[in-house]
Amino acid sequence: MSAPSSSNAPESGSFWSVANVIIAAAVGGFALFWGASLMIGTIRQTTGSKEEAAPPAAAPAAPAAAASSTAAPASAEVIEVTIKPDTANPLAYDTKEFTVKAGAKVKLTFNNVHPTVPQPHNIVIGTAGSKDKLMGLAMQMATAPDGMAKGFIPEAPEILFHTKLLQPGQSETLEFTAPAAGEYPYLCTFPGHAVLMNGVMKVQ
Ligand SMILES: [Cu+2]
Q1: CATH for the 73-204 domain, from 2.60.40.420, 2.40.40.10, 2.40.70.10, 2.30.42.10
Q2: What spacing in Å lies between the alpha carbon of 197 and ligand 1's midpoint?
Q3: Domain assignments of the chain as residue spans, ordered by start
Q4: Least buried of 73, 77, 154, 175, by fewest C-beta within 10 Å?
Q5: Which of 5, 56, 193 has the alpha carbon at shortest distance from 112?
């Protein structure tokens, strides 16, 4: 086991060997989870298109009457997305972008779990092109007297969906129908976070 930095005292070697195992396990577990959720997302999208591929009419609503065994009579595809604080950079989201289809049902979970740097965070999704305005409003909330009480979530017509301010370990799932095609910014409005803690929901 070669420690990456030689400046460490020998005694700290055992600490770091243990810490490295923990970090490796956490990163590995996260990677596994992330990979699995990616695969599930891909499989869902793949099976969704394959099921509708057989009949020439690709309209998802068409087979509803014929398909007796399969549930989900609703035509909308459900897409589940989980976002966490980034393991390497806890003041950023681990998911910088994701893509959904217009009209799809989206279950967006923000799971505020970080192995080493617990922080309050939220996620605010805005209309296309609203990123700069929302970042400005987030800065105003930082000094607003009622900023904390409002979870640093500004009031603006550009805000489509948002979680509350989630304390470390808390999780919230937003359920919404994906809007029209476009690029919808999302960001954390906790003071100082939005610059790095942002991403884009791409709707196709
Ligand atoms: Cu944040």
Answers
A1: 2.60.40.420
A2: 6
A3: 11-59, 73-204
A4: 73
A5: 193
d(Cα 70, Cα 149) in Å, to the nearest integer? 46
Candidates 194, 183, 202, 180; CA nearest to 132 is 194
Which pTM was predicted? 0.64
Work out the burial of residue 105: count CB atoms within 10 Å of its CB; fewer than 13 is exposed, 13-18 middle, 19 or more buried: middle
One-letter amino acid at 150 equals K
Spatial separation of the C-alpha atoms in residues 70 and 68, rounded to whole Å: 6
* pLDDT per residue of the chain (204 residues) written in tens, 0 to 9: 444 444 444 444 454 454 444 444 444 443 434 334 433 343 344 433 344 444 444 444 444 444 344 444 455 689 999 999 999 999 999 999 999 999 999 999 999 999 999 999 999 999 999 999 999 999 999 999 999 999 999 999 999 999 999 999 999 999 999 999 999 999 999 999 999 999 999 999
* Cα-to-centroid distance, 1 and ligand 1 (Å): 36
